[in-house]
Design brief:
The chain has about 350 residues and is α+β, with helices and mostly antiparallel strands. The chain has helices at about 15-25, 60-80, 95-105, 120-125, 145-160, 255-265, 315-330, 340-345; strands at about 5-10, 30-35, 45-50, 50, 55-60, 85, 90-95, 135-140, 140-145, 160-165, 175-180, 180, 185-190, 205-215, 225-230, 230-235, 240-245, 245-250, 275-290, 295, 305-310.
């Protein structure tokens, strides 16, 4: 690492905070600039699940990601004296006999055994929710306490880095100076607002609005998260998070009646218990056209970089991808071609 390395990070959502933390732990001076309006990370459920249920496939990069995930969050917990990573029991309620068949076939395969419990009689006869095709339980699933994560990590970074609450002015970027702050690199972690960034606005990052409900229900199990058409995430004291909607090309953070009704319709696939709605929240995810994050260096402005597009799997991906990006920035390690921004520049 060069001694003169000084990095500015624009955006203190999940990507920006984790990257700033990892750079700080490598003794790199970091300045974080954030306007204090978080669109996505803070309203996310923080779910970490190793499976994609539609065809019972493994999540992208899951084997590599899971190896790094637990040590990363354990270190954060030690640094912040808090509990952030919570083991989660996820029960998938099958939507068809075909889906049940996918699980039965793959539970016998060695590559799936770390992530799937074998279906037993209790799963077949499970009666705490609608269960017409049987159910199964996921291994190695977790939930990040998102509110605690942001509260504790912002406090940690304010003590260990230069944390500025202000808008970023792209016109004030000079060769090695931004408004009096010297830098060797500027990294943009702006979520979907990258589309307003004059240096990276051509990238195919689209806004995807998502809405969730916080509800109160009696009779729903609190020891596991139920999943079919939607997820029911236990919050304690008979309160649950219900999510989530996907509304493409929408940047509004206003909640809507249509989304509420969609979530309540999807909830009916799991239970007929009527929920008492406590709150409804909306956020906007950064969604990349090819469903892969974007990392790397601007094609001509060699001090400008991007780390963006973590999407709905952000809390699972960011520990490993943050490490890989630090290795790239500081030690010239190669980037995964699936992630490298060059995949878009080569098409131009």
């Amino acid at each position: 690492m060069k001694e003169k390395e000084r990095i500015i990070i624009v955006g203190a959502g999940l990507a920006g905070i984790c990257l700033a933390y990892q750079l700080s732990k490598r003794h790199v001076p970091v300045t974080i600039i954030d306007k204090g309006k978080n669109w996505s990370s803070k309203i996310a459920a923080g779910l970490i699940t190793p499976l994609v249920f539609r065809r019972m496939t493994k999540s992208w990069m899951v084997d590599d990601v899971m190896e790094y995930l637990i040590p990363f969050y354990t270190q954060l917990e030690e640094e912040t004296s808090s509990k952030l990573l919570i083991p989660l029991n996820i029960r998938r309620l099958f939507s068809s006999e075909q889906e049940r068949g996918y699980w039965l076939k793959k539970q016998e395969q060695n590559e799936f055994k770390p992530y799937m419990h074998s279906i037993n009689k209790d799963d077949e006869t499970y009666n705490l929710a609608k269960n017409p095709y049987g159910s199964a339980r996921v291994k190695s699933a977790y939930c990040v306490d998102v509110a605690t994560f942001f509260k504790k990590m912002e406090a940690w970074l304010k003590s260990n880095a230069n944390f500025l609450r202000q808008d970023f002015d792209y016109t004030k970027i000079e060769a090695d100076n931004y408004k009096g702050i010297t830098y060797s690199k500027i990294i943009f972690c702006e979520g979907f607002e990258v589309r307003n960034n004059p240096f990276f606005k051509e990238l195919p990052v689209d806004p995807t609005k998502g809405q969730t409900l916080k509800v109160e229900m009696e009779g729903i199990p609190e020891h596991e998260s139920l999943n079919r058409k939607c997820f029911i995430l236990p919050l304690g004291k008979q309160q649950f998070r219900i999510g989530a909607t996907y509304e493409w090309h929408n940047i509004s953070t206003n909640t809507t009646d249509e989304a509420r009704e969609e979530l309540l319709r999807n909830l009916k696939y799991i239970t007929d218990i009527e929920p008492k709605i406590i709150t409804q929240e909306a956020g906007v995810r950064p969604t990349v056209k090819d469903r892969r994050p974007i990392m790397g260096q601007h094609k001509s402005e060699k001090k400008l970089y991007i780390f963006n597009g973590l999407g709905a799997k952000g809390y699972m991906l960011v520990p490993l991808l943050g490490k890989q990006f630090c290795d790239y920035l500081l030690n010239h390690a190669p980037l995964n071609p699936e992630l490298n921004i060059q995949r878009f520049y080569l098409k131009q």
